[in-house]
Amino acid sequence: MGILDRLFGRDEDAITLQAMKKAGADLSLPHKIDFFLQFKTQEAATQSVVQLENLGLTVAHISKIGDLWEIHAHKEMVPDLKAIKEMKEKLSNIARLHAGKLDGWGTSVTPRQKA
Prior knowledge:
Blueprint: H1 3-8, H2 12-22, E1 31-39, H3 42-54, E2 58-65, E3 68-77, H4 81-97, E4 101-107
Antiparallel strand pairs: 1-3, 1-4, 2-3
């Protein structure tokens, strides 16, 4: 077991953060973290927008993907495992209130600063 395994564990979020670090990300810097929520109806998706904005997220767009309505929202934040998990829990709760689900998160790599 490597040091990153001991620090982050082996869950999906930890694996993503490990991959970001390996790709050259500076995990101490804020990143634009994208979150994706899915709902069965457009009305359910639009009803959750204010709650997302109250958490400091910016709703980029709502679009129909197959039979579902997806919200793409983002927030500038340091990609810390605890912060990601806390945000996912809050977003999952909002989604469940509207019979939806959190479909995941992602970000592009903000590289380490050169000395």
